[in-house]
């Protein structure tokens, strides 16, 4: 749980803010931006996020403020749905676009039927290791901190995940378009990498967008600018009503 505390927390009921996280922002960046907006209005608020979204992913990020931060754990365990693309015939160390491509292999022999068949076989329970370029902990450090020093931790603790649905929606080789419905803790980058490996040509996650967390939908989310505007407006209305 990533909850940022200000020096003094004003007791408020808080709320859940649904944010459409932009590309290249970390989840912490979004938390800090919203927290600092409250602070600029003279409001002391706890702010936390309900499930990390990688910098190279966009889409639904749920923030909790005030007393709602106590409910973060109940949202973190919810299933998630994503849409995205996988590039076949090449790999990256991070399994996404954060690092350079390597290991190009021919993929022209693949058929759409083969890709769809292999993907359908991923549905079910799996033991999944977190990727080296991830925020998972190992000996007091994030795995990505080890990775950036060129250190590979082979004994990364695997966790059980469930893939409820792996639908290939379109194929334009070498790009595969998909929708994934997964349980808590599933790394989509790893699934993309494993699909490429199963096809014998390699692959990595080229793009990713989170569509839902439990019943919470991306269609109800705001941009960061819209969320900031809403906070500023509420603070202004509060000041007016109190005659400040």
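^ Assign residues to that structure.
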């Amino acid at each position: 749980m990533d909850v940022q505390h200000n020096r003094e927390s004003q007791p408020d009921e808080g709320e859940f803010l649904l944010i459409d996280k932009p590309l290249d922002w970390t989840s912490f960046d979004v938390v800090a931006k919203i927290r600092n907006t409250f602070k600029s209005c003279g409001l002391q608020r706890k702010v936390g996020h309900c499930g990390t979204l990688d910098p190279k992913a966009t889409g639904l990020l749920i923030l909790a403020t005030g007393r709602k931060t106590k409910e973060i754990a109940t949202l973190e365990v919810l299933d998630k749905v994503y849409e995205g693309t996988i590039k076949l015939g090449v790999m990256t160390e991070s399994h996404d676009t954060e690092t350079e491509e390597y290991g190009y292999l021919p993929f022209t022999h693949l058929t759409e039927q083969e890709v769809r068949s292999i993907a359908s076989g991923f549905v079910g329970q799996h033991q999944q290791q977190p990727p080296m370029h991830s925020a998972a902990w190992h000996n007091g450090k994030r795995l990505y901190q080890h990775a950036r020093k060129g250190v590979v931790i082979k004994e990364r603790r695997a966790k059980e995940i469930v893939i409820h649905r792996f639908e290939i929606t379109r194929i334009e080789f070498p790009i595969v378009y998909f929708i994934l419905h997964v349980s808590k803790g599933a790394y989509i980058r790893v699934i993309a990498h494993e699909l490429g490996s199963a096809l014998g040509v390699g692959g990595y996650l080229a793009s990713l967008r989170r569509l839902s967390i439990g019943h919470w939908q991306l269609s109800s989310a705001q941009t960061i600018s819209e969320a900031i505007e809403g906070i500023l407006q509420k603070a202004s209305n509060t000041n007016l009503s109190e005659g400040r």
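Residues 1-10 have pLDDT under 50 and may be disordered.
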